[in-house]
Amino acid sequence: MADKRRKDMVLTEKTQEAFDYIKNHGGSCKTSEIMEGLGLEKIASVTGRVNSLVKKGLASTEDGGKTEDGRKITIVTLTEAGRNFVPSEED
Fold first, then answer.
1. Number of domains the chain is built from
2. Contact indicator for 51, 44 with CB cutoff of 8 Å
3. What is the spatial order of strands in the sheet that 72-78 belongs to?
4. Does residue 53 form part of some domain?
5. CB 18 within 8 A of CB 77
6. Position 5 in a domain
7. Domain containing 42: what range?
8. CB–CB of 61/73 below 8 Å?
9. pLDDT in tens, the chain (91 residues)
10. Which of 53, 12, 18, 52 shows the shortest CA–CA distance to 33?
11. What's 58's domain CATH number?
12. What are phi and psi of 87, to 5 degrees?
């Protein structure tokens, strides 16, 4: 039987960048670390990418408390599916 990959498991380039960053940094990191690591200026740029990974079951998020200035800290961790995920090439 031919290898049929689900369309929802193809990551956009931006989501793939976030996935790769998390995977290359131990499988778990703060959204602020992803933002800085990818050279982004706004946390909202990371939120959409992380939400996509969560929706696909590749990552989960948890509350990491608050920064000294009261901002929410979100920790993103790859799930077992995320740790085993091998991106497919788009046709």
1. 1
2. no
3. 28-30, 72-78, 59-66
4. yes
5. no
6. no
7. 12-84
8. no
9. 344 444 457 899 999 999 999 999 999 999 999 999 999 999 999 999 999 999 999 999 999 999 999 999 999 999 999 999 987 765 4
10. 18
11. 1.10.10.10
12. -60, 145
